[in-house]
Amino acid sequence: MKEIVLSIAGKPGLFRLVAQGNQNLIVETIDAQKKRSTASARDRVTALNDISMYTLEDDKPLMEIFESCKQYTNAQPTSFTHKEATNEQLTEFMSAVVPNYDADRVHMSDIRKLVQWYNILITNGYTEFVDAEETAEA
Asked: Taking the mean position of all CA atoms in its chain, how far away is CA 57?
């Protein structure tokens, strides 16, 4: 993914980094509205590229998990939403996407967030999560 996609604690959805100022970031929502706002130094801002999930071996980068989700769903949003999904649906989905995820350390809320973010990205045209060069090396 070439653009920097961010999660901001306390703000719903995902954001695309537009520009950086001295004390803040200018971000734009990843949705049809494309609403711009700022994130200050006090906000907890996390780039999705910096997030990983626990597996039974090494931690797996979130972008690789999104790529697995894309392959599992044929680049479509999931058949369920993060709000309406049952724990069984979430567990089945996670087991299919990351068979060796650490069920003791990955909570249902983590899987719900994964589904929410994946659906936001796919719905808004983000389909390249891992660079082709990285995929060829793996």
From this structure: 21
